[in-house]
């Protein structure tokens, strides 16, 4: 038991304040969402993309209900891994969906890293060779890894500082962009040929990536002060703040660039929109914010993702090898997370990284809601119609997204399907071999409840 205690005491209970938790959540959300997704969403659905952000916020609001209910009932540093375990027990659905969440979070890291590279290269006139973006991205992940080897307080301090600068900066960008634009009348009639319902749903799915940072908050559950109240509140505040910011920025970009320009500069559309609106200084300003936002997002994301994998390892739901490393399990999971992120960043482009992330995330999200409806409804005092609505909305946007991708980039859907099959097979073999070595349900519940 002493070894078990040694592992679990590494979580610093009560070390995150409500404000710090909101900063961590918005830090991940704003870092991923707004800088790279704006252009990619415009590519899918034309100038309706600000509305796709709003549609995504509606879907995420229904989704958040299940997470708030479960995190109020069982605050835990394992977050989603623990939620799945509460619903499905020591079975394949828990391990499979928890790993989907894990991979979608690693993918989000790579997405941030490449966005960092794309924006940084705008200071040097772009990246014609195509080599500098992944190199910069990989360097950023390694730097974030080194900071993550330090303490919680340092991570919270840096994330909060970057968060305040970044949110202030993006608001200035949005307000200035809208203020300077010739007119606020975005021409919604000129949708190009991509204005179909399927493409709008696909863009909405991408928009969900811009909000999914709220799950980072659930992953730091037991480390939040007064978690039963503050985890739910932090989620609601983060989503509301992001709706305002994304809508503002969406209109600022749409008012300053034509649709063709937004699509052409899709990996760095905010920097491109800043140039006509605010001149060369605007470009520098926007790139600086983008660099801070993506750096802060990666910092918070690595923190949360390695926590989650450590919890899954403790729950004996995933295979674990030390590979000869010393130190705690969480140090090892930090290394695996960073290595995976580096590989993705080096070899996948932005739109493919985003596509993989959204497919994995939505399937895991559906599993969480189904778990609430089927197994946890009484325990967490949830009303069934909310998670039912969340599942229907998830299926709708996932269907739209897959349909749109099959028409433009079927390879990435193939990669997603193959990866999920491999995860399922490996996990099934692992769980059969270990024979469910978890203690029985009653004892297990006590082991993992934080008193």
Automatic annotation (TrEMBL):
Residues spanning the membrane: 21-41, 47-68, 92-111, 131-149, 161-180, 200-219, 231-254, 283-310, 331-348, 354-372, 384-404, 410-431
The keyword Chloroplast is annotated on this UniProt entry: no
Gene3D superfamilies, alphabetized: Amino acid/polyamine transporter I
Record's bilayer topology term: Multi-pass membrane protein
Pfam families given in the database record: AA_permease_2
Compartments, as annotated in UniProt: Cell membrane
Main location: membrane
Alphabetical UniProt keywords: Cell membrane, Membrane, Transmembrane, Transmembrane helix
Protein name: APC family permease
The species this protein was found in: Allohahella marinimesophila
